[in-house]
Write the structure tokens for this entry.
Amino acid sequence: MAEKKYKITALIDIATVPEDDPQFLSVLPTPITEYHVIGALRHLGHDLSIVAVGDDIIAVAEQIREQNPDLVFNMTEEFDGDRSKDKNIAAMLELLAMPFTGTGSNGLMLCRDKRLCKQVLAHHRIKVPDFLSFPPGIKIKVPKSIRFPLVVKPAFEDGSEGISNASIVNDVNALEQRVRFVTEKWNQSAIAEEYIGGREFYVAFIGNKKPTLLPIRECIFSNNGNDGPRLATYRVKWDKEYREKWNINYDFATLDEATTKSIYRICKRAYKLLQLRDYGRIDLRVTEDNKIVILEINPNPDLAYGEEVAESALKAGLTYEDFIEKIIQTAMARYK
């Protein structure tokens, strides 16, 4: 149980609310993240209310004001189906002067747009893949400085949405086809970035001025030959049977001390440069010649029990309830 009980409003996307269980009271065989977090908040003894964000932002603001919580636990990832507007939800909370967990509107803006995120990091001499940006309908041109293969994905999605084995392209014709597919299906710009070989790691954080870096996780691609996935695709991330088929596993990383220190140092810089708050996750690869290349910055990573961030927290000695309570205390400390 939490030492101090707060009045907390869980702010969630309306698309995640089950029609037959709007208060998230059922026990499901495979519950989604909202069930995990809301269940932990209840178990900790906080005074909990739930507000779902639909397409009426004024109604949402009025509900939050009516609840008048000590803290909003912000789990939203979109507004009206648009992932690029997650920052607007945070901005609304800021305008309401309402304390909330997680990264603010500025950080969400910097991180959500994969192009802007990479430009900021590259400006500060943090290695990222070289990339091209293709708005819908633009003619494809590839400078000589860009090297194939490239990975094509939507500019504003997360959770590996839009990433499959077909995302890796080896020539201009394949690039044109994949860019057209991405821009038409997701109705947004596509980003085509240099494919980075090597080992893939996930570094989770809790904290602000002196964030705690949690034990590093790795996505291990084993015995794939030339036919297996080389990316953490949507199916790799969400399909257990697919991972078993290709012998892909998530586990804690085994790294030498020098590489671990370098990863933590670079990730800490990126965490602060992109204005992340309270918690977050950074995805990166370490190449065969030991270069550290950041792939993605996740200001609102999956907080579900058993997923990468919670697993890292558990390795660091935090039970799932401890982990959620740590986020609450870290957020509250910013407002004191």
Notes: The chain has three domains: 7-101, 130-194, 197-334. The chain has a mean pLDDT of 94. The longest strand covers residues 199-206.
